[in-house]
Prior knowledge:
Radius of gyration of chain B: 13 Å
Strand order of the largest sheet of chain B: 1-2-4-6-7
Structural class of chain A: alpha+beta
Helix content of chain B: 25-40%
Oligomer: heterodimer
Low-confidence stretches of chain A: none
CATH architecture of chain B: 2-Layer Sandwich
Order of helices and strands of chain B: EEEHEEHEHEH
CATH topology of chain B: Transcription Regulator spoIIAA
CATH superfamily of chain B: STAS domain
Number of helices of chain B: 4
Order of helices and strands of chain A: EEHHEEHEE
Strand content of chain A: 25-35%
Largest interface: A-B, 23 and 23 residues
Radius of gyration of chain A: 15 Å
Largest sheet of chain B: 5 strands, mixed
Shape of chain A: globular
Helix content of chain A: 25-40%
Strand order of the largest sheet of chain A: 1-2-3-4-6-5
Largest sheet of chain A: 6 strands, antiparallel
Mean pLDDT of chain A: 91
Amino acid sequence: MAPTKSRPPSSGDFSERRVLRDQRTDIEDAQSLVASHLAALGYEASACWAIRLALEEAITNAFRHGNKNDPAKSVRFMLRISAHQAYFEVEDDGPGFDPTTVPDPTHDENIEIPSGRGIMLIKAYMSEVAYLPPGNRLSMTYRRG
Amino acid sequence: MGSVASRLNVRVQNGVTRIEFVDRNILDETNIAQIGEELGRIIDSQVNPKLLICFKAVEHLSSAALGTLITVNNRVRAKDGQLRLSDIDPQIYEVFVITKLNRLFHIHETADKALASFS
């Protein structure tokens, strides 16, 4: 994982961009980075847990569905964390997709289908979620209290 | 060729195969695939599988892990077996509620209560 930019916009705030390549190692490194800043800013344990889950789903989706697990492709990860909110962007090398076409996994006819719950969990745990055109860049924000 | 360490602790108790996870975080897709294969072998080895999966040590779990549990549930039901889950951390249980999988799975507070529920 290569940090490409590290800049504190103001006292206590933190922002950074990273290019994630090796899937598991880079996800863990990114999670550790986020967790350290959340802890430094006093985010509650439940907030840290929620953000970790949403990031896991977002980055895993980017590698698996966006990049089709192609090791030649990468995921761009951006974080901007302040005392009031944590903002993230996850962008893959895929063509993008329309999230409204993903079937609702909670419907009776879909409940026994093993996939399709990542986006639902991201939306459940984050305050704001958007897929930016053409659908290969996810932005999500967690707002405290 | 070296053998791959199991990601599950398995023991049979009163005719029920009781399974616990080695990992605290069930996130890595390779590990989740291995867990699915190990559970699949257990199901294949029994006529009417009775499985209890205990989440006592589990702190984090991804949607990919949920997918594997759904596949396991489908396979157990296909063999007229029974699957129970127990000892799920409250934060993880909330994931089951959000996804409504608490309606699909038989979830019990403790392993003892889950064991008592097998017919």
